[in-house]
Amino acid sequence: MKRPEINYWITNMLESYEKVSDLNFTVAKPLQVETSGQLVPISVTPEIKELTPFQTEVAALNLIQSNKRLLDDLAVHGSCDLSHALGNRARFRVNVFTQQSHLSIVMRKMEGAIPTIQSYKLPEVFKKMTNEINGFILVTGATGSGKSTTLAALCDKINMERMVHVVTLEDPIEFVHPHKKCTFNQRELGNDFDSFANGLRAALRQAPKVILVGEMRDRETMEIGLSAAETGHLVMSTLHTVDAGQTINRILGFFDQEEQPQIRNRLTDTVRYVISQRLMPKEGGDRVAAFEIMANNLRVRDLILNGETEDRTFYDVIEDGSALGMQTFDQHILELYENGLISEETAKIYASRKSAINRGLDKIKAARGEATSGITGLAMKKKDIH
Fold it and tell me: pTM, whole model, 2 decimals?
């Protein structure tokens, strides 16, 4: 099996459905693609009913192309990340990993067009975020929730409005930004730097005003990121956390217990926005993003500094912060439901607080003149009243 055959598979997988987000190569399964959140098999000629260990290994090695760093990562850590281009047609973020002594491959398609705040219909507050000249903007969520797309939209807005130097540190580069008002230098892990910490340390010597870090993976990267945010740089990055409260706790968890009071102080001065996002099934197919947005105000600073209590939580502060563009997941989920973009079932599944969602759903349904409870027949008839 040679590289042209691998690209033939990839081409067929891309063409199998209108919207393909991921390609999946797993031993004992056919070739599969993810479309609208569902993993489905596809057919090629000659037919592949089940991939063999040999086929997945050869496919993986063709993608790795004898890259010593990638082979070492695969041997030591059990996985490696790389990028792959299918000519000018498509680019992919690739993860090759071991499972049960076999190799598997997942390829995520990277969008070619630069996303914008308008095209992705991001909340209005996103337009204000790019006015920040220093501090942290953190985008959080599960793998595949669209964090890189959100960051790219923010970078595009800066690119349209500000004449500044932007350095990005990515794994891999997903969106290639043209030079508009900004000067972009985009660097890729493995090819241009060996770790996010070292790349970020070097970026501070490259005179940027804006730094994008693909992921805050460890204590060292976070420490340098904090220093950059404190010294006049706007630092944008991602974390794999589900909401604002967990994000602050994850950052604190990078540091020893005795260091955390100082880190809390530094975070109160540097965190500008925490954006958490979830992708949900959309009515009629495809997916739609729900956002929790936390901006920095006095109440947020107090929670970062002193921690949450039973009576004071990030959720409560965000819920009351609409004047600053803040919103909880539940508030945005209810908005999406009211606009007909998601079903009632989806709203309940993805809710942060079920009680808040149920109250909100009842309010929306009551305004529509719909039944507000799944339980019917509880009303007493006149003849039953004595």
Answer: 0.84
